[in-house]
Amino acid sequence: MESPNLPSWTTKKDRISVLEQDRALLSLMTTIRDVNTSDREFSSAVEKVVRRLITSALNHVPAEEYTITTPINTTYTGVRFTKGVCGVSILRAGACMEQALRDTWTGPLSFGKLLIQRDEETGIAKIYYSKLPASIPNDIVLLLEPMLATGGSVIKAVETLTANGVPEDSIVLVNVVSSQKGLDVVSGRFPGLKIVAAAVDMELTAQNYISPGLGDFGDRYYGTCS
């Protein structure tokens, strides 16, 4: 039975991982959350956090032992990955995570795009644009979405990926800040999904903003705050 004193994600560590909350990360997260941080400082700090997230997420790509010969004619047994990676951005904010994936992953790589917005009348997330590579069912898919609040957009994204032949357990959500509610909803709906986050916030406001959160991620990253 789950302890009532622990966040539910801590009982699912095989599927949900949160980056080590070391001082380097906490310093970056402090910069990201600060209302007085400029757009350029915000994007610079985000990119450093995302690189750590991508590195952690790539641990979910399957690998096999691989022996090579070193320059001094001795052998070394390491690993090589056995699958390619596809990064799928939930637009617009998710696109800011693509460059870190390009810089970090050295194997076969492709990208897809999803535009998901909530219908103002029904409150239901809808797909407005989807462009996915034909090879995506064979890859490990990193679903790039910086903020996980209620989980509606992520649920629609995962439904779209699985409808296009991607196994649920081949999808890794890469996320900067999750709400506890969002983690519960998404992990409950998709038990095979993996999630890698930099932070988990316990509260949502009445308007479903993550609290303490960091504001509108896309506006702050792209400098479009009013």
TrEMBL record:
One of its GO terms (molecular function) is GTP binding. It comes from Aspergillus ellipticus CBS 707.79. One of its GO terms (biological process) is pyrimidine-containing compound salvage. SUPFAM superfamilies: PRTase-like. The lineage of its organism: Eukaryota, Fungi, Dikarya, Ascomycota, Pezizomycotina. InterPro entries: PRTase-like, PRTase_dom. It comes from the Eukaryota. Belongs to the UPRTase family. This is uracil phosphoribosyltransferase. Pathway: Pyrimidine metabolism; UMP biosynthesis via salvage pathway; UMP from uracil: step 1/1. Keywords: Allosteric enzyme, Glycosyltransferase, GTP-binding, Nucleotide-binding, Transferase. It is an enzyme of class 2 (transferase). Residues 21-224 form the Phosphoribosyltransferase domain. Its EC number is 2.4.2.9. Its cofactor is Mg(2+).
